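Thread: quick sanity check before group meeting

JM: Hey all, I'm pulling together slides for Thursday and realized we never actually wrote out the predicted structure for the chain we discussed last week. Dropping the sequence here so it's in one place. If anyone has concerns about the input, flag it before I start.
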Amino acid sequence: MIEVRQISKRFGDSIVLDNISVTFNKGITNLIIGQSGSGKTVLLKSIVGLHNIDEGEIWYDERKFNTLSFKAKKEIRKEMGMLFQGAALFDSLTVEQNIMFPLDMFTNMSKKEKINRVDFCLSRVNIINANKLFPSELSGGMKKRVAIARAIALNPSYLFCDEPNSGLDPQTGIVIDKLISDITKEYNITTIVNTHDMNSVIEIGEKVIFIHDGKKLWEGSNTEIMNTNCTELNDFVFATSLAKKVKEQS
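JM (edit): ok, ran it. Output follows.
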């Protein structure tokens, strides 16, 4: 579980996050949604420690993350898995080497143990016979699945996904959503997904946080989001769905 307690973040005179509190529970997919510039990316980066917050607290289970030393934060980061927008695979490394990268950094596994872990993670994301391929030889959907395999290589307690369906067609996006959801439940991970994809919200949004102008205006589930009285959220849902339909028809 991750708890965000009354956090605020400023860049100069601009308030980007304004007194946000939310609990992200284990074993479910927690989604952060909002328009570009709403503060959702800053919120995610603040939670993982890429931004220092100005006020408030961030708790990883019983550990107050934002006040820990660099060394103590590094220990918690070993428990994190990251799925970046665009997959962010290393172009010069093979699939096997990409997944092995966090194992090389954070473990003392033998080479055989690392290979076994790589093979297990690849099988978990339904990829076979791709160990020696390079990212340039993979489709967009396969790159995302390899990135998920790398994200779970260290058997994380916390999984962070930044726009995981960016650049994917809707059908492939559904596959990636289901994979993230299945892994979350299978390993009881605290998963936070930063997205503007309404398909993801409907498919896997067990808990949804809506950020608008740096404030949390709404939280609920994917079954509740279509019946909200929040005007800003309704505008966001309608505009996003309309833009998606126009893009699919073009």
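AS: nice. The chain has a mean pLDDT of 90. The beta strands are 2-11, 14-24, 29-33, 55-60, 63-64, 80-83, 158-162, 190-194, 207-212, 215-220.
JM: adding both to the slides.
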